[in-house]
Amino acid sequence: MPYDLIIIGSGAAGLGAAIYSGRYRLRTLIIGQDFGGEAAKAGAIENYPGFKSIDGYELMNLMKQQAASLKIELLEAEVTKIVRQEHCFMVAAGKKIYQAITIILAVGAKHRRLNLPNEKELTGKGVHYCVTCDGPVYTGKTIAMVGGGDTAVKGAVMAADYAKKIFLIVREKKLRAEPVNLERLKKLGNKLEIIQETEIKEIVGRDKLEKIILSRPYQESAELKIDGLFVEIGSIPNVGLAKALGAILDEQGYIKVDNLMRTNLDGVFAAGDAVNHFGPFKQAITSAAMGAVAATSAYNDFKLHGELCRWHARPAKLKN
What we know:
The chain is of the alpha/beta class. The protein has helices at 12-23, 56-69, 131-134, 150-159, 179-186, 240-245, 284-312, and strands at 3-8, 28-32, 44-45, 54-55, 73-76, 79-85, 88-93, 96-105, 109-111, 127-128, 142-146, 165-169, 192-195, 200-204, 211-218, 221-225, 228-231, 235-237, 268-270. The protein folds into two domains: 3-111 and 235-312, FAD/NAD(P)-binding domain (3-Layer(bba) Sandwich); 127-231, FAD/NAD(P)-binding domain. The strands form five sheets. Strands 1, 2, 5, 6, 7, 8 and 19 form a seven-stranded mixed beta sheet that branches. The two termini are 22 Å apart.
């Protein structure tokens, strides 16, 4: 028997959708390869209602527990293909095929890279994209953080718990961060140096990161010797599955949805960082909210077509 709903992605959007689908009594499966998404790596979250401060991973785990209490199934696997066949969707994950009547794409986004030579080769060897994950490695060392947005500023503040010196490299003249995080940044004092109107031109190192080359001199030299480099310059939506399925993207490359999180495809909804519903404002709370709306829309769609789909469902077999 097909699932009433398969949610692809187990971050804030996917788990938020799961909680609502569970309350709607939809037989639901969440499939996610990266549990908790970006929220799980955010460190302390201080702007989620109900919590003065909570670790991002802990918040996602609480959502997971709540979904599990509503009899939601969760599978840790990568979805490699989705195909509509007859009245159901066929979802390939791991070595199995799962059937679904409705789909929610809560596939999130991946870190934007600098796209410089040597970046890929030195990833994990001095080049990183997650302070929460890798910051402790640089206890007592010198690092650089590249980015001028709120994530980069929060990352620099977080890294200050470990690093002895932080260079914040900003392409523009001003930082674009919440006032509370800018205040925390100022309190770092001499531990922090901000290098503005500057970009990284080269990443130098053979077996590990040795230094970076800046677009203009800083203290009479374009070379900056550091132990670690953290890249926080935004993200790119994971839209490969959506495109293959036939979902329309917007001008910025995000999955296009209406106010009810409906895509152009019947039975397919999307939520979270893979859609651009709130523009550049991407938070755990907005992702969870979109997930709740998407689950409600999926429920309403299921009420109209669910029994028909169940009646016509066949044993799962994925066609090319």
